[in-house]
Amino acid sequence: MGTIILGVGNILFKDEGIGCHVVQTLKQIPLSDTEVIDGGTLPDVLLPEDTDRLIVVDAARAGGTPGEIYRFELGDIALRRQAILSLHQMSLVDNLLLSKAWSDIPETVIIGVEPKETGWGLELSPELRGKMPHIVKMILAELGNAGHEGEARC
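Above: the chain sequence. Below: its structure as tokens.
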């Protein structure tokens, strides 16, 4: 399989859907050995055994300026102990860390983007819309395909 790029978020809440918007742009670019998936709000992590790498794109509140882009590896994120009454309450990161505890998971990179607006609406804020080409370029660089950045319309 190679690499899976997983965009997550809720497109009904403006910038919360940045991951979904990014993967829709990436689907316009031919990428070898890469599957691009829109995980929406239910990004259960069921990866094929032959997945070498996982790149997750999501909104991430870290206190930066709107549109600021963060790069994390799974080891950079601590699993916070919380009372979980149902598996439906687990976040994507909780799922990944739990999967890591049970078995090997592929090398994982998380690209987080600081949101500005998370109220009702389908459009990204101007700040995040303006960062789309940079986010796509960053992901392509992660793939080692930096020569493709001009091929997508953002």
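The beta strands are 2-8, 34-40, 51-59, 69-73, 107-113.
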